[in-house]
């Protein structure tokens, strides 16, 4: 025989359960999130992906390998698609503010599911001073809580410090919000020890 639970008891129980939401950024504070992906202070998952830049598609045998940039600050910028208004806005802003946001010692990579040929055309059209990585299966995006729809990714940004740990993450990076770029720049400076 089934027992009926009074509706009032269910409402009280549900209201007592704490809400877990994705924070806009998790700079300098511990988090407990249902979303996977490395928290600040955790080791950044290693990966290798093919790349393209404004001059060429990278050689097949020379993929980008995050572990080879150990000792440097790395910015991982996941974005939905090349040639979209928001993707263009974000990557253009990164290029325009490259020196002030990042500097020469910082490695910046954009990551989406687009093909290498599309990445090359996109990087050339915007004269991007950094590489774009192709993750068509979204395997790396899954490890970084950045999967989107079937052929796109969520806009997220990570700063990986020289020690290989995540120093900053923003799981809802807004390509049009100047505050998000200011937070990112501050996180990069902290990661570099400045």
Overview of the molecule:
This protein has a single domain, classed as 3-Layer(aba) Sandwich (Glutaredoxin). With 194 residues, the chain is α/β, with parallel strands linked by helices. The chain is built from 6 helices and 8 strands. 29% of the residues lie in helices and 17% in strands. The strands form 2 sheets. It has a 6-stranded mixed beta sheet. Helix 4 links the parallel strand 5 and strand 6. 37% of the residues are buried. It is globular.
Write the element-wise H/E pattern from the N-terminal end onward: HEEEEHHEHEHEEH
Q: How many DSSP helices?
A: 6
* Structure classification: alpha/beta
Poorly predicted runs of 5 or more residues: 5-34
CATH class: Alpha Beta
Biggest sheet overview? 6 strands, mixed
Radius of gyration, rounded? 19 Å
- In CATH, the architecture is 3-Layer(aba) Sandwich
Strand content: 15-25%
Explain the layout of strands and helices.
Elements: H1 7-16, E1 48-49, E2 51-52, E3 64-65, E4 73-78, H2 85-96, H3 98-101, E5 106-112, H4 116-126, E6 131-134, H5 139-143, E7 156-160, E8 166-170, H6 178-191
Parallel strand pairs: 4-5, 5-6
Antiparallel strand pairs: 1-3, 2-6, 4-7, 7-8
Concise overview:
Helix content is 29%, strand content 17%. The chain is built from six helices and eight strands; from the N terminus they run αββββααβαβαββα. Strands 2-6-5-4-7-8 form a six-stranded mixed sheet. The chain has a two-stranded antiparallel ribbon with strand order 1-3.
């Amino acid at each position: 025989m089934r027992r009926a639970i009074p509706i009032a008891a269910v409402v009280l129980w549900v209201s007592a359960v704490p809400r877990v939401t994705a924070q806009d950024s998790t700079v300098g504070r511990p988090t407990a999130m249902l979303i996977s992906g490395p928290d600040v202070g955790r080791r950044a998952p290693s990966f290798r992906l093919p790349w393209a830049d404004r001059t060429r598609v990278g050689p097949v045998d020379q993929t980008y390998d995050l572990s080879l940039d150990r000792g440097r600050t790395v910015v991982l910028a996941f974005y939905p698609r090349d040639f979209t208004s928001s993707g263009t806005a974000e990557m253009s802003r990164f290029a325009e503010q490259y020196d002030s946001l990042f500097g020469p010692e910082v490695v910046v990579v954009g990551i989406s599911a687009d093909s290498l040929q599309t990445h090359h055309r996109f990087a050339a059209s915007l004269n991007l001073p950094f590489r774009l990585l192709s993750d068509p299966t979204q395997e790396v995006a899954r490890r970084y809580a950045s999967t989107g729809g079937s052929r796109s990714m969520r806009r997220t940004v990570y700063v990986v410090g020289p020690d290989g740990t995540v120093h900053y993450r923003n799981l809802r990076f807004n390509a049009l919000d100047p505050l998000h770029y200011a937070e990112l720049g501050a996180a990069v400076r902290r990661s570099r020890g400045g």
